[in-house]
Amino acid sequence: MKIAILGTGLVGETLGSKLVALGHEVRMGSRTANNEKAAAWTQKAGARASQGTFTDAAAFGELVFNCTAGTASLEAVKAAGAQALDGKVLVDVSNPLDFSKGFPPTLSVCNTDSLGEQLQRAFPDVKVVKALNTVTASVMVEPSKLPGPTELFICGNDAGAKKQVTQVLTEGFGWKRIIDLGDITGARAMEMSLPLWIRLYQTLGTADFNFQLIRA
Amino acid sequence: MKIAILGTGLVGETLGSKLVALGHEVRMGSRTANNEKAAAWTQKAGARASQGTFTDAAAFGELVFNCTAGTASLEAVKAAGAQALDGKVLVDVSNPLDFSKGFPPTLSVCNTDSLGEQLQRAFPDVKVVKALNTVTASVMVEPSKLPGPTELFICGNDAGAKKQVTQVLTEGFGWKRIIDLGDITGARAMEMSLPLWIRLYQTLGTADFNFQLIRA
Prior knowledge:
The structure is a homodimer. Chain A is of the alpha/beta class. The first copy, chain A, has 10 helices and 11 strands. Chain A has one domain (2-204): Rossmann fold, CATH 3.40.50.720. Strand 11 (209-215) of chain A pairs antiparallel with strand 11 of chain B, so a sheet runs across the interface.
C-alpha cells in the first residue's frame, strides 16, 4: 500500500521505517520538500521510502499517519490540504502536548474537546482514526517487546476506516488486543491518559511500558 | 484505628464497611447528623460504626477518607473544618466529575490543577494523599476479585502519610502493587485518567476492571 507519514520526528521515522520493512511504499511529508531529517530518513529506509511536502505525501498516500507534534498538527494537516486528503483515512497518532512551559507538558486541548475531534471537524471528508498515541514509538511498531500482551485503543466515526487501521496494527505491527472506544470523542479519553503516561515515565525511568486490561 | 469517612455514597459505604470488618472504628460524616443513608449504614455495619456531621467524623478519625462527590469535596472538607483535621492524613478518593451536562461527565478541574492539589492548598496542615480514585468501589477494597494483579497509584507531599495509607491498602485491602507517583501534583495524572476509565466502562459494560503495568 502507499502510505503517507506527516512529520519527521521519532514517531514518524519509527512508523515509516516499520511500514517500509513491511513492504509498503512510504512518503514522509514535512513543511518543505527536502527537509533534512526526511531526506536522511529516506536514505536510511531504502528504495520504497520517499519524501516531499505535506501535500506531496498526503496526495501519494492511500493511508495517512499524522505524526506531527500535536500543537502543530492542525496547521500541518491544513498544509497537506483537504484535496490531497479527500476521502482518505487519517490515523492521528499525535498528542496535544504543550511544552512551552517546560516538562512535564500540559495538554493544549482536553476535557470537552480533543485534537482528534478538532482534526475531524476541520476535515469532515477525511476519516480520522485515533490510535497509537498511548505508547512510545518503539512499542507502537513492536508491542511484543513488552513481556506480556497489552491493550491498544482506537476510535473514530467510520467503521470501515477503523477496520483498515486495525488490520495494519494487528497484521503489520503485531497488536493482539485492540479496544474500539467508539466514535472520535473517544480521543478525549485517549489523549487525557497522557499525563499518567508521562508521570509513570518520570517515575519508572523508562518509556517501554503499557497496560494490560484485567477484568472480572 | 479510628477512621473517618466523609460522604455517604457507594464509595464511602464500601470503604467504611470494609474498615469496620477489618476491626477499625469508623465514623461516617455528612452535611447533617442523622443523615438517612449514614444512619442506615451504621445499623448495617454494626457496633464499631457510627455517624455524625463532617466535623464529628473528622474530629473522631485519626485517618480521614474523603469519599464525597468531587465537585462538592472542597465544601465538604471545609465543613469538617481545619481544626478537626489539623495534622491528620486525608485520603482523597474522590474525582472531580461534573455530571451537570449528563453522562459522560467532564472534569471540573484538570490539566494545570487537580482536586487533590486544591484540597492540599486549602488545608496546608493536612497531609493529603490521593489514592483509590482510579478503580470502582468494590475493587478498592477487594483487588483480588480481579483475575490478576493490577496497579494502584498513590501520591502526596508527605512520605510518612503515604506510608501509613499504603499499609492500609496492602495489609487491609490486599493491594500488592502500589506505584508512588510522587508529590500531590500526581493527582492531575490520576484524575485525568478517569475519562478513559469511563469510556472503558461504557465499552466493556462493567466497572470491574483495572490495569496491570507491563514493562520491558
